[in-house]
Design a protein that fits this description.
39% helix, 21% strand, single chain, globular, eight-stranded mixed sheet, alpha/beta
């Protein structure tokens, strides 16, 4: 029953992001004004100006490439890469000697990202990006091959978050680092929101308490786990007219807002050196 339920959640998420990729919906974890959101959560103009058109889809809740402090020559893996925003930014930071790999389970998102790859090469001269179809619970990546794993507002969508953290630990090289931007709970959400498909796709219903995230990272074998709560409010991201967020906001108890329940966090953790 649990496996069947997990598959239903994945299908709900996949359909939601297919609609976003096809322009039938927007906003999700982001904003109807992607550049405004990107600036509010830490992306610089220098990072954004080299992006292919359409790569920034307003689906972010942080900038994991900044906390990763990427170096030339590193191999970076982005979980749930969407239109390729963080993959392209990471690719520029690691240079031609490095590589940036994106994994996404939605074919329509991958198609957008792959089309953008040639435009990215034209702008930067770099040809060091790759996009792979796959689920973040079962990454299409070999053991111990990644220097840095990043993810941006995606792990909250997974119905099996412990398995995602296990996979992060598996693919990281000895001494490798995970840098995750995500949403977390301040307190449990109302039950009616937990059952809402709109809340799931808009990155709300799948969020867990910060302590649970730390526990899962430790269980996966990672150490030196640091969690930074971002100063900006979830309500900045929710400030849009997208039907998904509107449904969620209308389901909240009277007098409350998303920021009363949800915060944005940056998580960093390391794999032991062998």
């Amino acid at each position: 029953m649990a496996a069947e339920s997990n598959e239903k959640i994945k299908e709900t998420v996949r359909k939601g992001y297919t609609d976003i990729a096809q322009g039938k919906s927007s906003c999700c974890c982001g904003s109807s004004a992607p550049d405004r959101l990107a600036g509010a959560i830490g992306y610089t103009n220098e990072e954004l100006e080299v992006l292919p058109d359409g790569a920034n889809m307003g689906l972010s809740c942080g900038n994991p490439t900044t906390i990763a402090n990427l170096k030339p020559g590193q191999v970076v893996l982005d979980l749930g890469s969407g239109g390729g925003l963080d993959v392209f930014i990471a690719a520029r930071k690691v240079g031609q000697a490095g590589k940036a790999i994106g994994v996404d389970m939605t074919p329509e998102m991958l198609n957008k990202a792959r089309v953008s790859s040639s435009k990215f090469t034209e702008k930067t001269g770099l040809s060091n990006v790759e996009f792979r179809l796959g689920e973040i619970e079962y990454l299409p990546v070999a053991d111990s091959t990644i220097d840095v794993v990043i993810s941006n507002c995606v792990i909250n969508l997974s119905p099996d978050k412990q398995q995602v953290w296990n996979e992060i630990a598996r693919v990281l090289k000895s001494g490798g680092k995970a840098c995750i931007s995500d949403l977390a709970l301040k307190k449990p959400l109302p039950k009616n929101i937990l059952k809402s498909a709109a809340a799931l796709v808009s990155c709300v219903a799948g969020a867990v308490l910060v302590d649970e995230t730390i526990k899962m990272a430790k269980q996966a074998g990672l150490h030196d786990i640091q969690v930074d709560e971002k100063a900006y409010s979830i309500d900045v991201m929710a400030d849009c007219n997208d039907p998904l967020y509107r449904q969620v906001k209308e389901s909240l108890p009277e007098g409350t807002k998303l920021g009363d329940y949800i915060i944005s966090i940056n998580v960093s953790a390391f794999k032991n050196k062998e």
